[in-house]
Amino acid sequence: MKISTKGRYGLTIMIELAKKHGEGPTSLKSIAQTNDLSEHYLEQLIAPLRNAGLVKSIRGAYGGYILGKEPTVITAGDIIRVLEGPISPVEGIEDEEPAKRELWMRIRDAVKDVLDNTTLEDLASHTDTGESDAYMFYI
Fold this sequence. Notes:
Blueprint: H1 5-19, H2 28-35, H3 39-51, E1 55-58, E2 64-67, H4 76-84, H5 98-116, H6 120-124
Antiparallel strand pairs: 1-2
Helix pairs in contact: 1-3, 1-4, 4-5
């Protein structure tokens, strides 16, 4: 399964809104500038997120977007499903031989578990702990 730029940028929008949750609306322009992304592309992604009730738009001079629900309630899975569709590592699982079908279903379930148990609050409050260096070997 590969997450496209739609899913990745959609997560970026939602994480930025979660970081500013409770501070009022945030413009797509500021999100685009902060993350060096195309504002036009973000405008295309915000509509399905709004239609799904994950974001609300605020009109006016100081308008923008806010989360439609608390960041503790919205999961990465919610966002990915809205922008990418159903989560599946391969198409046509039912046509596979039993051993491969079982493998694909286990992979799908593991990915769903991670996405559905990771909230926007988790993503917005994540700090880089530098743990990646823990596995670095120098010769």
